[in-house]
Design goal:
Elements: H1 27-44, H2 48-75, H3 83-101, H4 104-135, H5 167-175
Helix pairs in contact: 1-2, 1-4, 2-3, 2-4, 3-4, 3-5
The structure holds fe (ii) ion (2 copies).
């Protein structure tokens, strides 16, 4: 059930802290990412009593965070099944499973692994999305595309990488994007 987290296990366990290396020069995205890092830090440092409610807060925030990025992708020429959106779906599903189980040890492990996954995701997939949004003149606040002639002729499935075949393979390939 928790296999989707296997791809997070290679990195060393470190608590994620905000660093300007996470900035993507897109204020709406950067603000959300700062909030994500702050909420995750609260989860990592939570008492047993507060852990599960804070985890739910993080899920709610992450749901909106991913939905906003998915919407930007949908509005600027990405296929609905593109790798970035799929990665969002997998991560959110695993987070929800952890919340439903209510096992604090598992939630703490997920929080640690989420802290390792996030910089990779932000610096690869979110960075590629930010670049794409700028290239088509997208206004993230309104969704308006100022350079429609720059929209891709064909729907984008992924940015870089090769095949998207197996679940873990898909996530790893997507992370190369
Ligand atoms: Fe993001
Ligand atoms: Fe993302």
């Amino acid at each position: 059930m928790l296999r989707a987290f296997d791809f997070w296990k290679d990195a060393h366990m470190l608590t994620l802290q905000w660093t300007d290396s996470l900035l993507l020069d897109l204020p709406q995205m950067d603000d959300t990412h700062r909030e994500f890092v702050a909420l995750l830090d609260q989860v990592v440092n939570a008492s047993d009593e507060k852990l599960l409610p804070l985890w739910q807060d993080l899920i709610t925030h992450t749901d909106a965070h991913f939905a906003r990025e998915d919407s930007w992708m949908k509005d600027t020429g990405f296929a609905s099944s593109n790798c970035h959106t799929t990665q969002h779906q997998i991560v959110l599903q695993v987070m929800r499973e952890g919340g439903k189980r209510g096992d604090r040890a598992i939630v703490r492990q997920m929080a640690d692994e989420l802290g390792m996954w996030f910089p990779q995701h932000a610096q690869a997939m979110d960075a590629a999305l930010a670049l794409h949004l700028r290239s088509v003149g997208n206004d993230p606040a309104t969704g308006q595309v100022k350079l429609p002639e720059s929209l891709p002729a064909q729907a984008i499935d992924r940015r870089g990488g090769s095949a998207c075949s197996t679940e873990n393979g898909l996530v790893q390939e997507c992370a190369q994007a």
